[in-house]
């Protein structure tokens, strides 16, 4: 059974510092890995999706890397801003059951960027 | 822009009541999902559907059922609500194994 871990559970940084968020997973047979952002009391917003054949994916200040063989992904957020304060979740897409796929989520890292 | 809407943002129900949570997506996605999110337990999959009238159990299906009569609509049903079903419920949809798009969530309180 796939397990996804995010350490640390919480992180506080001063504005302007680069953020490094870690995600590890136990089964390397994945289709893709997705990073999400969640603001308090809200749904999840997709940030980046990395296919299993890719090493990294970039969008603006965000860069996510994937090392399937070691079961790790890292999300980098450059020059953090107070608006980046949120919980960040990673999730891996496994093949599950005879007819479908499912995402397995990590517990998330709660980020606070202090002005 | 993909839009996933959920019928209620907040809901208060009594123990034993039948509860319907509805989710609608506008992108013709095959897959739709229901999750619940609890502090310390993270996001857990309750049920998902990969086509009309098709459903698969997730990690925690007990006490829940689902219905998908039309492609755009996926309903979660609590047959007899209990206090341990107080939670945040999140619906999502996706095309195959691509990005999942989430609704805003329904915070359910069962008294």
Give a description of the structure.
- With 115 residues, chain A is mainly β.
- Chain A is built from no helices and eleven strands.
- Chain A has strands spanning 4-5, 10-14, 19-25, 32-38, 44-51, 56-59, 62-67, 72-77, 86-96, 100-105, 109-114.
- In chain A, strands 2, 4, 5, 9, 10 and 11 form a six-stranded mixed beta sheet that branches. In chain A, strands 1-3-8-7-6 form a five-stranded antiparallel beta sheet, with no helix packed on it.
- Chain A is globular, with a radius of gyration of 14 Å.
- Chain B has 111 residues and is mainly beta.
- Chain B starts with a strand and ends with a strand.
- The chains are: A mainly beta (115), B mainly beta (111).
- The interface between A and B is medium-sized, with 24 and 24 residues.
* Coarse shape of chain B: globular
| Share in β-strands of chain B | over 45%
On the 0 to 100 scale, the average pLDDT of chain A is 92
Summarize the amount of helix of chain A as a percent range.
under 10%
Question: For the terminal residues of chain A, how far apart are their CA atoms?
Answer: 41 Å
- What count of helical segments of chain A does DSSP give? 0
Mean pLDDT of chain B: 94
Helix percent of chain B reads under 10%
Beta-strand content of chain A: over 45%
Structural class given helices, strands, pairing of chain B? mainly beta
Separation, N- and C-terminal Cα atoms of chain B: 37 Å
What is the number of strand segments of chain A?
11
The gyration radius over C-alpha positions of chain B equals: 13 Å
User: For this entry, what is the oligomeric state of its chains?
Assistant: heterodimer
Largest sheet of chain A: 6 strands, mixed
Instruction: State the low-pLDDT regions of chain B, or none.
Output: none
Number of strands of chain B: 11
Unreliable parts of chain A: none
How large is the count of helical segments of chain B?
A: 0
The most extensive interface between chains reads: A-B, 24 and 24 residues
């Amino acid at each position: 059974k796939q397990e996804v871990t995010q350490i640390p559970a919480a992180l506080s940084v001063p504005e302007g510092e680069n953020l490094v968020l870690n995600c590890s997973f136990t089964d390397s047979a994945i289709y893709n890995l997705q990073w999400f952002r969640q603001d308090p009391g809200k749904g999840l917003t997709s940030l980046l999706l990395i296919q299993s054949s890719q090493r990294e994916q970039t969008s603006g200040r965000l860069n996510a890397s994937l090392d399937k063989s070691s079961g790790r992904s890292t999300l980098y957020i450059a020059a953090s801003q107070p608006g980046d304060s949120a919980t960040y979740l990673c999730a891996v897409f496994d093949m599950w059951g005879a007819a479908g796929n499912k995402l397995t989520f990590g517990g998330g890292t709660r980020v606070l960027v202090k002005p | 822009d993909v839009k996933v809407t959920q019928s209620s943002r907040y809901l208060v129900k009594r123990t034993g009541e039948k509860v319907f949570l509805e989710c609608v997506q506008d992108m013709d996605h095959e897959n739709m999902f229901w999750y619940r999110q609890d502090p310390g337990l993270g996001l857990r999959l309750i049920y998902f559907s990969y086509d009309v009238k098709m459903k698969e159990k997730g990690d925690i299906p007990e006490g829940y059922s689902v219905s998908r009569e039309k492609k755009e609509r996926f309903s979660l049903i609590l047959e007899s609500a209990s206090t341990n079903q107080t939670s945040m419920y999140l619906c999502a949809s996706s095309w195959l194994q691509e990005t999942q798009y989430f609704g805003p969530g329904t915070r359910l309180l069962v008294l």
